[in-house]
Amino acid sequence: MTETSARDRIVRAAAALLAEGGRAAVSTRAVSRAAGVQAPTIYRQFGDLRGLLDAAASYGFAAHLHAQAAHEPADDPVDDLRRGWDMHVGFGVANPAFHTLMYGDPRPGARPTAARVAADIFRQLVVRVAEAGRLRVDVDRAAEMVHAASCGVTLTLIQGGDPGLSVATREAVVTAICADSPAARAVRPPDRPVRHAVALRAALPQLAGDLTPAERALLAEWLDRLAGADRQA
């Protein structure tokens, strides 16, 4: 058995145990028996049980993302952001052991791999909203708001919260960070200049060939200052 195949078997076994019995079911002995390996192989591959749990959670989340990969992006980037929220919450409610492993045991300065992937997905969705000129705040702030709120809602629903909480919270966050309605886009609200600054900041990497490094850095500084004006208000 190669090291690669052994690692795959261990991760799959741990993920199956996690889905069936929760975190308590994932012990070195149980995984060794299910994967057909010796305990030293697990420690050599993952360092410790926490490393194995991180890999198992990442595997489960990656499988869910693969199942969702066939969806084409929506014409409206805000609708895509909504769908990303629903996908994230839906995964957590359907797989509470994976979600609580990703978010239920926070450590300062450390974030499980699957949680980092989820945060990156939200950021990509928010960048699309920014590029459309529809983001009221800067990309990083908006992505953090969406990720944090969706995680909190999911943990609440896992504990038996009101199922309508997800949509209500999602729409509150969308309203806070996006210029979403046709009426809001038709008028010139006070945040219109901020949204233009955010949009240009999101598109700045595409201008790499038209500006010198010094010019890009200076423009990025100006745009970040404009986009962050709401924080200082």
Automatic annotation (TrEMBL):
Residues 4-64 form the HTH tetR-type domain. Residues 27-46 bind DNA. The keyword Transcription applies. Keywords: DNA-binding, Transcription, Transcription regulation. One of its GO terms (molecular function) is transcription cis-regulatory region binding. Pfam families: TetR_N. PANTHER family: HTH-TYPE TRANSCRIPTIONAL REGULATOR BETI (PTHR30055:SF234), HTH-TYPE TRANSCRIPTIONAL REGULATOR RUTR (PTHR30055). This is TetR family transcriptional regulator. It comes from Micromonospora palomenae.
